[in-house]
Amino acid sequence: MKKSLKIFLTTSLTSVAVIALTAGITVATKSHPTEKLPELAVLANNQNLKYKNYQSLMFELQPGRVDPKQSFASAYVEDPIFKTNSEITANNKYWENLLLPKKILTKSEQQNQDFYITTSQAVPLNVFKDAYNIQFKSFANDLEGVLYLRVSFVAKDLNKNLTPNVTTIYKLSGFKKITLSDVTNTIFLKNDATQLRNEQIDQYQTFTALKEAYQKLQNDSQKRAEFIENTLVLAGTSDTARIDYRKTEVSFEDPNVIKINFYLAPLIKSATLTDLNSIQFHNTEGFYTQIEKTFHIEKFK
Question: What's the burial of 164, exposed, middle or buried (CB within 10 Å: 0-12/13-18/19+)?
Fold first, then answer.
């Protein structure tokens, strides 16, 4: 039986609240000063919803049919870099359908959807719908196996003395961490967009002159990378990858052959609490794909 994922709402109406949540493990944040109420408890108080203890208003996010250990966090974002689940488009509507159901769901119905949310007092997020527009946006960190869910509450009528805007970020850990083998098939050069820069190469009178110009840069990785990218070759990659020109190697074979060993690394969703939209060019050891291409320079035949 799957364990619940418990979310404890933290405080401060003027800043983002962060809730620690780990798949399969109940994690509680440290208690906050009693004079401060959790954001959603404050919203409940604004609407005169009668709960025994606003301080203990605690929302629980539980997995239904989703097993985080078997899924990438990016499977549950709207714009994944690489598609891991063709059946899911995790946009605002997706989360709204899950977390703001139009009817009260039975336990069986809840467990038959990806996620569901309620409180220990069986209070759904729906209780805030009359007074607030509720919006959802999810972000992934596939390197760490973390999904962030941002829930925003915007008051519909400020004249009712409601807290105007509240944003809460839920941090869901325990998802699969990406490896190179997971993305190898998405990392490639586009052959029709990869070609020699003949106009730049034409500045050299001989093949030897071109080779020597490159070899003079062997001790300067930055200038060598710029020479490959801006003088030798125009290379196009898949949308999920970039070339690390500092790692890329070039060899010259008389009379007119250049062999380039391209080092490609993936672009990976790497959201953090301070930068939810972060995308990392993950050019670390063990995360490269090497592709060698051979070019013949017609000018030096």
Answer: exposed
Q: 187-241 pLDDT, tens per residue?
A: 999 988 999 999 999 999 999 999 999 999 999 999 999 999 999 999 999 999 9
Q: Spell out the residues 6+ positions from residue 240 whose beta carbon is closer than 8 angstroms to its own.
A: 81, 82, 183, 186, 187, 266, 267
Q: Which residues have C-beta within 8 Å of that of residue 7, sequence separation ≥ 6?
A: 19, 21, 58, 59, 60, 61, 117, 170
Burial (0-12, 13-18, 19+ Cβ within 10 Å), 180? middle
Judge whether 165 and 155 are in contact, CB under 8 Å. Answer: yes
In this structure, what token pair is assigned to residue 164? 């105007």
Residue 103 and residue 120: Cα distance in Å, rounded?
Answer: 18
Report d(CA 301, CA 298) in Å as an integer: 5
Which is nearest to 23 in space by CA: 153, 93, 104, 115? Answer: 115
Question: Do 78 and 150 form a contact (C-beta atoms < 8 A)?
Answer: no
Instruction: With cut-offs at 50, 70 and 90, classify the pLDDT of residue 7.
Output: very low
Chain-centroid distance, C-alpha 182: 15
Non-local CB neighbours of 196 within 8 Å, separated by 6+ positions: 232, 233, 234, 258, 295, 297
* Domain ranges, ordered by start, for the chain: 54-173, 180-296
Residue 58 CA to residue 51 CA, distance in Å, equals 12
Contact 188, 264 (CB under 8 A): yes
Rounded CA gap, 269 and 144, in Å? 10
With 0-12 / 13-18 / 19 or more C-beta atoms within 10 angstroms meaning exposed / middle / buried, residue 151 is buried
Please name which of 261, 230, 276 lies closest in space to residue 77, comparing C-alpha atoms: 276
DSSP codes, 35-80: TS--HHHHHHHHTT---S-GGG--EEEEESS--GGGSBGGGGSSS-
> What is the Cα–Cα distance from 259 to 80, expressed in whole angstroms?
34
> What phi and psi values does residue 87 have, to the nearest 5 degrees?
-90, -10
